[in-house]
Amino acid sequence: MSGRRRQRNLVPDNLTPDILHLTPMADLNELYQQVILDHNKKPRNFRVLENATRQQEGYNPLCGDQITLYLEMDGDTIKDIGFQGQGCAISKASSSMMTAAVKGKTRQEAELMFDEFHRMVKGEFDPETSEHHLGRLTILSGVREFPARVKCASLSWHTLRAALEGTQEAISTE
Amino acid sequence: MQAAVEAEATQTAHAPFDVERIRAEFPILTQQVHGKPLVYLDNAATAQKPQVVIDALERYYTEQNANIHRGVHYLSQLATREYEDARVKIQRFLNAAEAHEIIFTRGTTESINLVALSFGRKFVQAGDEIIISTLEHHSNIVPWQMLCEQTGATLRVIPINDAGELLLDEYERMLNPKVKLVAVAHLSNALGTLNPVQRIIELAHAQDIPVLLDGAQAAPHIKVDVRELDCDFYALSGHKLCGPTGIGVLYGKSRWLEAMPPVFGGGDMIASVTFEKTTYNTLPHKLEAGTPHIEGGIGLGVAVDYLTGIGLDRIAAYEHELLEYATELIGSIPGVTLVGTAREKASVLSFTIDNIHPHDIGTILDQEGIAIRAGHHCAQPVMKRFGVPATARASFAFYNTKAEIDALAVGIQKAIEVFS
Fold first, then answer.
1. Within an 8 Å CB–CB cutoff, is residue B39 touching chain A?
2. Would you say residue B420 lies in a domain?
3. Interface ipTM
4. Closest CA in chain A for residue B375
5. Span A35-77, pLDDT tens digits
6. Based on the structure, what is the number of domains in chain A?
7. With the C-alpha atoms ordered A15, A16, A22, A24, is the resulting torsion angle positive or negative?
8. Exposed, middle or buried, B382 (CB in 10 Å: 0-12/13-18/19+)?
9. What is the CATH number of the domain that holds B258?
């Protein structure tokens, strides 16, 4: 576990218990938005790529989430991308949305998105106040209120980065 | 003070089970989480602590702290007496024959590793076999794998049926003169199966094979009598017994502990040291090198007395009622599948919900103030056996109530609604 996970407390100091009592479900609704639930139910690019030039395993030992990512590279460009695996709603939706977002992008563009995405879910980067390249991926920003779920959202991205770097070993979020 | 505590304990033992009075003794249970009353159903991971245990830790550091077994001064003698008294309390709690059969460790994991490293080094060779079961926690798998790797011994695994019960016939067939140890859980942490350990021990002993019981889950929920069980080793963790973290126990029959070489060398475990030769101390100190977790041992002594005061039989009966209630209520929610349906169970309700990953269930319940465990419960072979990556697990203690189980049921309905 990284020390940075503690940066955002679930119960901000400036909120009184009275206010908390009125709003606990708001956070949950932000986490499990309709778009996220939809990607969980019908994940995009959920398939094995026949012409994959790269294949990468990712694993989150904490909850048993597992992903196999397939890339078809055309030079430096992600021509096609697919994934298989099992995991929670956040991990599945994040994988699905990631594949949709990076298809057709160059390695550099994907890595920039990884960086912004990773900082966003950790609460270190606010796409509402900063310029970003995340598009619809900002829907997953609600994860920052749930430190225990950051790993779920970032598993597919760590796996993508390892695939782009050509790391052979299965990567793990631990 | 001590007399007063005991008098109160005796009185409680004859009174009806007053859960509200018990809850009042656990300060953590009064808090709110996300604006909802805390419903703590993760007792198989760790139990909450009663005020008497918290007070004992504070008293140790405000009135008793000194190093033990080595001082002539007042505080050192006081701390030594408190620590050794705790050992006797645990001896009584387990009904061990001798106090020196109680070895303090950091917890169940260290207790099992201690047997693997010491007993294993002495008695296990290439070609030998160690028997464990499919139900084991990783801490009763990995130490034996490591031992087998080092010695060339083979690990054999007792299979289970679809309810999560050990197949005793298979086990009986596995026993042979090459088996040097049987190491099984008393109570499964992932499924709640209560294993037929009496029979397991009888069958092993018929062939002179010693048996280690992993009692991490069982000890807080069932009266454990190591002499009646006739087990050779019993491992447990203090923190699951309402005691502090970082303290645990290895019970071993004297004849085994006497024969076992020390694993750690250092202070306290020696009788005399020269550069030519070191003579080891007697039990239990031979197996307890270095300054121990003194306040942990003392706190655990207070915790087991607290549990004895309520009565393990009454705790078991009350928790059985809770588990039956929860099994009926949660099991009847459409979409919920119970994982682990053994006839003999205690404390644990593992389940899955159609199309909802346990991790998502855990987050949604957390928002309702309900703490459960979601994951593989450090028992991946069990998960594999049932073909699931993880389960959600509610685990009960004697301070839980039926109202809390009702809250769990409502929380589960909410999770199903979110994902509908």
1. no
2. no
3. 0.78
4. A63
5. 999 999 999 999 999 999 999 999 987 777 899 999 999 999 9
6. 1
7. positive
8. buried
9. 3.40.640.10
